[in-house]
Amino acid sequence: MSLTVLKLGGSVITDKDRPDTLDGEMLDSVTDAVGDAQIDDLVLVHGAGSFGHHHASEHGVSKTVGSSDVAAVIDIHGAMETLDQFVLSRLHERDVPAVPVHPFSVASRDSNAELSLPVQQISTMLGEGFVPVLYGDVVVHEGKGVTIVSGDELVTSVARQLDADRVGFCSTVPGVLDEDDAVIPEITSYESVADVLGESESTDVTGGMAGKVAALLELGAPASIFGPNDVTAFLDGENPGTKIDG
Ligand code: IPE
Q1: How many other C-beta atoms are found inside a 10 Å radius of the C-beta of residue 104?
Q2: Which residues line ligand 1 (CB under 6 A)?
Q3: Mind listing the pLDDT tens digit for each residue in 81-131?
């Protein structure tokens, strides 16, 4: 059995210019690709796009700044559940046996911000033929109330714990770009791209490309970053966009 973890970026599946609005065409196109794929075990994770981020910033909640306000939890989590319902129903229309895993209900961070995400239920879901779907969410954080957990963190945690074979990130860009905006086909060390991406430490908290590449080099499974037109190629076993393999 080979496990693939695929993240659908929030800015791919939502209209980033309008709050709480889907990009219906794009969501159709990427869920078509998932529906057509011949794949053993698949875990999907989606981001927030225009559903989560503005609620999070209205309540002043980020990955590092918390809130103990119940209204913040309900607002942010509620918006993400709504988006998740849309994603699930488009997958069901394509006969994908997608089932939700709600990160807020199962995950937590300790006082060092270390994320704990149980995966036994995800592994059992896979064994029973389901496609678990997770999403960026609020997460209870010791000493801070709740903070944000990004889809990228969930991908990394699931991939590590379940020893994923392949990891894919469908984003709005076709890959990691060099100084001429050409896609870099493969990255095997940070030094080779430091000139283009800058220092990773400075951008880690913003979820920028530098932090993402640095994290993926440590993952222990090959990861690909590609655009929405390449989901089919990725699920077919190809390496579209940028392959990151430390
Ligand atoms: C953010 O998740 C989650 C919330 C703001 C609730 P992501 O960081 O994975 O979302 P995108 O993919 O950037 O939109």
Answers
A1: 18
A2: 9-11, 47-49, 52-53, 56, 76, 80, 136-137, 148, 150-152, 207
A3: 999 999 999 999 999 999 999 999 999 999 999 999 999 999 999 999 999
Residue 75 to residues 8, 37, 62, 117, 230: CA-CA distances in angstroms?
A: 22, 34, 14, 22, 33
CB 46 within 8 A of CB 82: no
Confidence (pLDDT) at 241: 98
Distances (CA, A) of 117 to 76, 105, 111, 155: 19, 10, 15, 11
Fold topology of 3-244 = Carbamate kinase (3.40.1160)
Collect all residues with Cβ–Cβ distance below 8 Å to 238 and sequence separation of at least 6.
none
- pTM for the full predicted model: 0.96
Position 41 scores a pLDDT of 98
CA of 63 to the centre of ligand 1 (A): 10
Q: Ligand 1 pocket check: which of 46, 53, 102 to mutate, most ligand atoms within 8 Å of Cβ?
A: 53
- Find the range with the poorest average confidence among 136-140, 165-169, 190-194, 202-206: 202-206
Query: Ligand 1 center to residue 137 CA distance, Å?
Result: 7
CA of 47 to the centre of ligand 1 (A): 4
Q: How far is the CA of 10 from the centre of ligand 1 (A)?
A: 6
Taking the mean position of all CA atoms in its chain, how far away is CA 38?
A: 21
Give residue limits of the domains in the chain. 3-244
CA–CA gap between residue 113 and residue 96 (Å, rounded): 34
